Every structure is written in structure tokens, then in C-alpha cells.
Backbone:
């Protein structure tokens, strides 16, 4: 397993754990954001398992994209709605 593949697996696991452990704490429930979060967890799970079984990554930019999403999600506290909010609403 090469470095980009390892980085992609670690970033995918961070994304999965952070989304699963997110607590709303009084924030409103948004069904659309819940579907996006579910899809993000499903895609990252599939990607991590695929990389672990094959041992390689098809493109280096996937690792970079996953690392950026993981860092943004950690910065937002796991709030996916905060990441998907339009820039003029800040």
C-alpha cells in the first residue's frame, strides 16, 4: 500500500467516525443533509474497504480530496450542514 492510499483510508475513516459521532444538540433536523451524510458514509466505507482489499488507489487526487473533506469536517465539528451552507449565509 502506497502513501496516497494510506492517506485516503485514514481520511475516509476520519470522515466516517466524525459523521457517525455528530450530535445535533438542539439543532434542527434536515432530511436532505441526513441523506447527504448517509451517502458520504456509504461512499467512504466502500472506498476504504476497496483500497484495503486491492492495496492501491486509482488516482492521487482522491486522497487529496478526502483529506480536505476530513479536515473541513473536523473544523466544522462534524456539522455537514455547515459545510454545505452557501458562502453568503455566514
Residues:
Amino acid at each position: 500500500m502506497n502513501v496516497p492510499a494510506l492517506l485516503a483510508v485514514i481520511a475516509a475513516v476520519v470522515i466516517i467516525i466524525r459523521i457517525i459521532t455528530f450530535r445535533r444538540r438542539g439543532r434542527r433536523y434536515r432530511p436532505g443533509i441526513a441523506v447527504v451524510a448517509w451517502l458520504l458514509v456509504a461512499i467512504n466505507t466502500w472506498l476504504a474497504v476497496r483500497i484495503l482489499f486491492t492495496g492501491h488507489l486509482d488516482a492521487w487526487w482522491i486522497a487529496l480530496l478526502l483529506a480536505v473533506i476530513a479536515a473541513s469536517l473536523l473544523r466544522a465539528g462534524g456539522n455537514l450542514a455547515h459545510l454545505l451552507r452557501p458562502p453568503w449565509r455566514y
Q: What stands out?
A: Residues 3-89 form one domain. The chain has a mean pLDDT of 88.
